[in-house]
Amino acid sequence: MAEDRYRVQSVERAFALLEALTEAPAEGMTLSTLARSLGVSKSTAYAILQTLLAAGFVADAGTGMSRRYRLGMALARLGDVVVSQIGLRDIAMPVIRDLTAETGLTSRLAVLDEAYAIVIARVDAPRSIVRFAANLGKREHLHCSAVGKAMLAALTEANVSEIVAAAGLPRKTSHTITEDSALRTELAAVNRRGYAIDDEEDAEGVFCVGSAVVDHTGRCAGAISVTGLKLDLPAWRVDQIGGTVRGHAVRISELLGASRKAIA
User: Fold this and answer.
1) Predicted TM-score (pTM) of this structure
2) Rounded-to-integer distance, Cα 190 and Cα 212, Å
3) Which of 55, 153, 203, 237 is 20 to 30 A from 32 (CA-CA)?
């Protein structure tokens, strides 16, 4: 529940305006009508509209007194994302619970959010004295996490270039990949073995192993991973964990209706 003292009036008015537009006729609503609906001045309503227009949450047509406003397509995109995330989370949760039970490691499920990854589900390792920071809904860089690299490897080179241009390759630890050529080499390795490795690249002493999940269209729907302390983890154990994570990612992909060709 939200605490009243932290509520922002201008944001609440923006939400109220969007709600008002849900009742708008097909041709939209005028500025005067919206202002009356919100109980604010036309100048205040206009300022809110301009902000929402810039972000694509409102669309307009016409000029002057005939200018009318309606809901923008950005809301449709967000709606699709919400539906897909809820569906993916519901399907994946039993599988990542199994993954944690099998490996004894914390499991995560993440999806792409523009140039970043967002964790939408997590299952903590049982009887572990360590709780890894993995706040749900927090944006993470893709180049230094296992879920991130797994998803990057499932994208086209053009998509990867766009993401690198938008988010950069910031250094998190001394192990972080910060060169584009090195990242491309790493992504090729991810595709060959079927899973990605974060070898202390996001946090010192912590390793992650992740694998991408695809849906019925063959599109990358997200990625799952396991996280643990690096210590003196032998290479054979990482490979073993990678195969396990990959197997559970395939299970989720199959539940999403992915074809064998898309999963391979």
Assistant:
1) 0.70
2) 10
3) 55
